[in-house]
Amino acid sequence: MPLRVAILGPGGVGGMLGALLAREGHAVTCLARPETAQHIQRHGLTLSSDRFGELSAAATGTTRLDQPADVCLVTPKATQLEAALERLPADVLGTAVLVPLLNGIDHLDLLRERYPAARTVAGAIQVAAHRTAPGTVRHDGSMAAVTLAPGAEQLADALRVTGLDVAVRPDERGLLWAKLSFLAPLALLTTSLAAPVGAVREQRSEDLRTVVSEVAAAARADGADPDPAATLALLDPLPAGMRSSMQRDAEAGRPTELEAIGGAVLRAAERHGVDVPVTRRIVEDLRARLR
Ligand SMILES: NC(=O)c1ccc[n+]([C@@H]2O[C@H](COP(=O)([O-])OP(=O)(O)OC[C@H]3O[C@@H](n4cnc5c(N)ncnc54)[C@H](OP(=O)(O)O)[C@@H]3O)[C@@H](O)[C@H]2O)c1
């Protein structure tokens, strides 16, 4: 049965999932800034993907949710979340399923507080997608995997049908920290060195190992079951030229997700009395350097 899917912040992640879901006949409504909303209303969503091919699909573009949805995907960047939520009134969202796919962990509490009637289900996405123009997304490579906590079964089924890899994982903290354990060391060190991951492995290997183990300690104290050796094994074979999105944002002078990624690790460590000195030094240095 077609789902009514609202997408708040249809950029790289939201635009890609919206295009794939709309192609399967789901009713996709994008909640966006006026220019983007207008473009999507006129031209729909367009995806160019190594894995899914070239596709365009009709979607509704609007600046504010004004009719019920079954599911709402929350996909702005962390720095844009507060402003974007103005487009999602709690009384219209009602008891819908709310699935944030932002990196980080702190947004879940924010959403649950703001939308107490909704069913907020943790999610994470592994993909390399970027918005090239309003409503238009480029997806590079074949990686496209969504992990959801229980409670969003209809969405999980719908995403599976689009061809995405979809997993449901019972432990919410584990799900969120699995992504952050990999991302935080990668993002913090590439941004700190202003160099891709190959240079980090060569020049900051000690820091890389230490940050991986500090983040794992914070994750463990926060209720997850991290595996730092597995994280290092994932970081090892990454292409030497690979950069992180935090690094790209920093280089372009855009606001970064430093607080949602590095700040979240420090806050969790502090909450649980875990010492993370190297991660703290890097985050504080970046806080001083970036906006
Ligand atoms: N991209 C990836 O490959 C990837 C992979 C894994 C995780 N993530 C995570 O997913 C999240 C989203 O990343 P992204 O790369 O998709 O970001 P993005 O391409 O910048 O998309 C965010 C979208 O939010 C929209 N937006 C900004 N302010 C808004 C507002 N006030 N109201 C409504 N919409 C607003 C922007 O709209 P406009 O189009 O109008 O500018 C933009 O299209 C981040 O937490 C990121 O770390 C991304």
From TrEMBL:
Organism: Blastococcus colisei
Residues in Ketopantoate reductase N-terminal domain copies: 5-150
Role noted for this protein: Catalyzes the NADPH-dependent reduction of ketopantoate into pantoic acid.
GO biological process: pantothenate biosynthetic process
SUPFAM superfamilies xref list: 6-phosphogluconate dehydrogenase C-terminal domain-like, NAD(P)-binding Rossmann-fold domains
Family: Belongs to the ketopantoate reductase family.
Domain of life: Bacteria
Name of the molecule in the record: 2-dehydropantoate 2-reductase
Any Pfam family: ApbA
InterPro entries found in the cross-reference section: 6-PGluconate_DH-like_C_sf, 6PGD_dom2, ApbA, KPA_reductase, KPR-Related, KPR_N, NAD(P)-bd_dom_sf
GO molecular function terms listed in the Swiss-Prot or TrEMBL record: 2-dehydropantoate 2-reductase activity
EC number(s) recorded for this UniProt protein: 1.1.1.169
Keyword annotations of the record: NADP, Oxidoreductase, Pantothenate biosynthesis
Catalytic activity: (R)-pantoate + NADP(+) = 2-dehydropantoate + NADPH + H(+)
EC class: oxidoreductase
Cellular component terms (Gene Ontology): cytoplasm
Pathway listed: Cofactor biosynthesis; (R)-pantothenate biosynthesis; (R)-pantoate from 3-methyl-2-oxobutanoate: step 2/2
Ketopantoate reductase C-terminal domain residues: 174-288
Gene3D superfamilies in the cross-refs: N-(1-d-carboxylethyl)-l-norvaline Dehydrogenase, domain 2, NAD(P)-binding Rossmann-like Domain
Regions that span the bilayer: none
